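note to self: dont lose this again. the chain is below, predicted strucutre after it. 490 aa total, dont forget to put it in the shared folder this time
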Amino acid sequence: LSILESTISHFAPASAIWFFDTQRGLDELDESMLMDALASTLSAYPHFAGQLFLTPYPKSDTQVPHTKRFRRVSINYGSTSDPGILLVTATASVKLSDVVPEAALRHSASKLWDITDVPVQQLFPTPGVPLRDLSNKADSPGVQVQITTFADHGIAIAIRAAHPLADAQTLASFAENWGAKFRGLSNNHPPLSTPVFNPALFDAAAAGDIDASAPDSALVERSRALPFHRYDYWTHTPGNPPFMDRDPQVIIPQEVPADIVAGREEGVALPWHEWDVSAPVRHYIVHFTSAEVDAAYALSARTFQGSDIPISRHDAFLAFIWHLIARARPLESTTDDTISLNVTLGLRTRLGLPASYVGSPTLLTSLVAPHTFVAASPPATLIRKHIQAFTPEAIGAWLHAQAFEIAPQRFWSGFLGRRHVLATSWVRVGLWDVDFGDVLGGLRWASSVMPSLDGMVTTVEAQKVQGKEWWRGGIDVNISLEEQAMKRFM
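---
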């Protein structure tokens, strides 16, 4: 796969779920047609049925292309031995209406929906996706689907994919194509456009010669100037939580020669002292109306009146959420006043890739700012300046440096806990465009599904919206915070 996708094999899988108000339930014919449509959709995503694996350490000193260096993510597909995708059908004894309230209830009253104890993960297949533990396992599907029927005939469709295979846009387009295939089978609707799977197209954005025997030092230096944390799993961290001592991430592989290990450029130790992983976490979905999004934008516009940096609605809204979280997380007396916003950036538009490009061209970046500054007012212009640093030339330099990393999963540019927010956006990816026609009925709710960890934030449209103003139907924000911080946030 691509240079970038090799760096994220250990990330949480891309996961989303769709709930439909199906009136009569699915009969055998409906289920058969759903499966036929899924199989037909896979013909446009054949690699989804393949086997992900990590490349071994080269056996000789012979120069190898960048895709064959140590622990690069690869995939074999197109043979009868492919693991395929995992498809599970299940039933639930509860009603859909008991799990997911109607939109009118979710968007009215306090607009706060505590889903901490909603068993969303039970609506996904049980097995984990491959490569998260940095091991190669045969017959391990990288894409997993579960169709759950509720007691009132409601339907949930949950899809999970190993992150190197899919980001939010790829996952949503896969589900949308599946729905279109199903409608085509039942009502003769035309299929959607063909997805583009071509990792080499993405790697072409890398600067310099990524297949050379050594990196270009000037490009590496430029990449280091970009705003990323370089938290290094191989750098010993005092006070590691016990589970990290067993994590393959922290173990320097025996295959790597000692002189290369000794001569490596070390990063920063992971700041585990800033994240109490044993503390209880609450997970809320907070609804904001379009008027409230407009108000957040107006607040930023007033705060930074006269600035020559144009901000978007998304900049302003993300700044507003970060501001509220900073207020809810007062720092103890310390000489370090900094906090960070670890924000994902989509690279399709930035690198001129087609909208139908499938994969995970999404970059996790790190914006560091004083807590007092962020808690005082929403820092929208700071976020926009941060995003502007990622020009095609800068990204090209970063990709060049990543192509030569000893082990591409060694560094993490994000973190969680009391000083960190990890923010991803699922707006404009087409989550609400998934349509299986009259058989499944109306879409009650669509959402990304992320781990409930302290500092995780995901933004999704609250309903389907026509046109470019994605916020006009309101915004749902998935927020997970340590319990006391969440009380203050509320």
